[in-house]
Amino acid sequence: MQKKIVQSSLALTAAAALSLGSAFFASPAMAAGPQKLDVQSDKQIQKALSEVEGVNAYGERNGKLSLGVEKITPEIEELTKKFSNVKVTEGIKELQPYAKNDLVGGAGYLVDSPSGGGVCSTGFSGWDDAGNPVVLTAGHCSKQYNPSTGAIKGATVVDETERPSTAQAAGGDGFEKSGLGVIGKWGFTSYGSGDLLSGDPETWPLPKESDIDFAVINVDKSKYNVKNGVTDWTTAKTDDLSTKLATDIAKVGPHTEGKIQKSGRTTGLTEGQVIPRSEYDFDFQNVGGYWVHGFGVTSPASKPFSQPGDSGGAVFQGDTAVGVISGGGPQGDGTEFGWVADLDYSLEQSGQSFNLQKPGTETPEAPAAPVVKDQTIKPNGDVKGKAAANAEVKVDWKPAADAGTNSAQAAKDGSKTVKADADGNFVLEGPAAAGDYDYTATAIVGGQESKPSEFTVTVEEEKTETPTPVERAITVDPKEIAASDFVKQDKAVNITVKGFDEGEKVSLKVVAGPKNVKGIELDETANADGVAKFSIYGTSASDHSVYVGKYDVSVTGANDTEDESALTGSFKVVADDQGNGGGSDDGKGGGDGGGDLPRTGAELTGLAAGAGLLLVGGAAVVLTMRRVKKN
Length: 631
Known about the structure:
Blueprint: H1 13-20, H2 42-48, E1 55-61, E2 64-69, H3 74-82, E3 86-90, E4 96-97, E5 105-106, E6 108-112, E7 118-121, E8 124-127, E9 133-137, E10 143-145, E11 152-155, E12 157-162, E13 177-182, E14 184-191, E15 213-219, E16 230-231, E17 245-247, E18 251-252, E19 258-264, E20 268-274, E21 284-287, E22 290-293, E23 295-300, E24 314-317, E25 320-330, E26 335-342, H4 343-350, E27 375-377, E28 382-386, E29 392-399, E30 414-419, E31 425-429, E32 435-445, E33 448-449, E34 453-459, E35 473-477, E36 480-482, H5 483-486, E37 493-498, E38 505-512, E39 521-525, E40 532-538, E41 549-557, E42 567-574, E43 614-619
Parallel strand pairs: 2-3, 5-7, 18-25, 27-34, 36-42
Antiparallel strand pairs: 1-2, 1-21, 4-25, 6-7, 6-12, 8-9, 9-15, 10-11, 12-13, 14-15, 16-17, 19-20, 19-24, 20-23, 21-22, 23-26, 24-25, 25-26, 28-31, 29-30, 29-32, 32-33, 32-34, 35-37, 37-40, 38-39, 38-41, 40-43, 41-42
């Protein structure tokens, strides 16, 4: 925020002292042409300027000394011939400080002294580091100044604020007290140095870094409140200048070239142009016989940037406070010149603390917005991001407008607050339904919310494998069995079917067989793989020959459609001298690997006395098959 003179001959005392031992002053005898003045040496500058009068502006930059004078005298002309790095600008007049006792005051407040009163303008309101209210203004408002001699006889006393409706900016004559009481007392004050009105060149002083026109009023907080901002004077008739501001001041900073504004009790709110350094190459200006550090402003004579009584007034660019009015006057070319004591420099030199918000009441700085990238996740996958360490992160989402057809679950908005870890990482569960979602994430630290971050989360549709359809099939094992084996419980004909629905009722019928064996039926429930298994064997071991013959079986399901055919198969029971005990209906043989199954069933009545009985049973087996219906 602070600004210093660049490569100035008015460098810090220690630096200046170091330069004296090695300073080199080139005399005319040592060279035929102009020499360079060692601008880093105060001693050499003093010697070079000892016979020069009428210097009203002074500046040094990049090894060049710039002097401003009202008229070039023979002495000054000789100086420019002697030194190639001395530049002289003619037409620079001595300025008079505003707030003279006979005519002017300050911007919005009165001052008093034994020799009379005056009026000045307030600059900027705020607080020092201790939280005390202060007003910044021009230093010469604090002095009893004699404009004829430039002599300062003592200090003024801060009085009341001026009644706004009577000020010259509002069309009045001014100098009328507001009745609100004395503002406060002077704190730090400084009005340059010099006695430049003296005609003795031997005593002509050089500017010092501390030459500023700057003062602080310590405000009586029992009578006044300080309010940040600069008035535009449009509410002066109401005697309340705080209700309409030209700007809120956000910071103190250096001035820049271009448009600049000022608010003061004489001319109100005005505009001017900062004079570029290339056109007015000076750091210090003679204001009433005293050096003042600052910068120049030009304006039309018909619309002056400042006038007497505007001293101390606020000079600003946008929301940046850049200075207070020091002095000014008309120029010969029909323009008005103003000199502004630069505020950042004045604060640095004075050591005065100044805050635009009362210390301890500042609003904490908002945290940085979370950093979250667009991401693609699986249903209920993790949504991840990064925020300030240990921040609360509020996350909101909704289906994107162009997401297409989402499920009912995706159509619902959502919100959740999670906590970032010590490294700032946060994670939360994403939506379950597929689709695109618009997300926002806001970090919350110390009750302050960040700006929201926007990102997109795409939930991929979960892919499931559709099992390969399983055709219904029947296996009979064995296809042929000896009668003596058929009547043994541990040997039977196993019939396995597949391709049914889980839990479906499956029915087996012996639809044809030897005439002396009654047909049978049995129901079984298909397992999770759509498989059911039946076993058939004879119960009349004393006359197993009665079972000899061919048997046809039919298997249907409770969920069968009209177009679905029953599964059919057959097996033979043969006489012992003919049986081979093997074979299966699907031609593969060897059964289905299901192993021995418990036999269940019931004895069935034969068609004639002594006829053999056929026992049937059912059991489920685990096979990785599912049923496919035929429609």
